Amino acid sequence: MKKLKDSDYDIIFSYLEELFPNADTELHFNTPFQLLVAVILSAQTTDKQVNKVTDKLFQTIKEPQDVLNMGLKKFEKSINSINLYRNKAKYIYKTSEILALNNWEIPKTEEELIKLPWVWEKTAKVVVYVLYKKPVIAVDTHVHRVCNRLWIVQTKTALQTSKLLEERIPSQYKLIAHHCIILFGRYQCMARSPKCENCRLQSLCLYFTKNHQKKCLK
Ligand code: SF4
Fold first, then answer.
1. pTM score, two decimals?
2. Is there a catalytic annotation at residue 8?
3. Distance from Cα 204 to the centre of ligand 1, integer Å
4. Same domain, yes or no, for 100 and 120?
5. Atom from ligand 1 closest to the CA of residue 196
6. Angle at which helices 32-41 and 47-57 pack, to 10 degrees?
7. What CATH number is associated with residue 184?
């Protein structure tokens, strides 16, 4: 398996930073609780769809007590265009009840966050990364795909990628890696028909090399 050199990481991240300067989450939020809700809602749903719902919802829901005041049924109805909305509503409501017993504070560590209902490792990492600027890298389908194409990892599942990624990415890039790679995967290095023609990472890319070879053999 090819092992990337430090200079390869420099090439990758200088390109990604150039493409996506000031890369940030595309989820809309104003309070830490709203971010937590948005990240929970975004499981198996696009950020665009989540924003469509939360742009209206967050006019009312700013803190956990607002969810409790609204009541489960009404809250469920307000997110019913989101995938798995019944479960998500139930667990966000439950989370609000737990936070009520905890002075309404959003936990600051991954370990505490994953004790909340429907908060998985990926959700917890996004929350601590975005809110508290911790150098962790949440792995979604885009991060998994891009990192495999660029030889950062060679894994079959996102879980395997997640286990390896934080030790592979050099520390100076950890604070930008998550958002840069997600945006790259969303807008350039898509699963189908990635925009390879003008990509400056062709020489480092397994996907490009394989497809280029196939074209040459035709
Ligand atoms: S060459 Fe294509 S597949 Fe490879 S990183 Fe660039 S856009 Fe992605």
1. 0.90
2. no
3. 9
4. yes
5. 2
6. 140
7. 1.10.1670.10
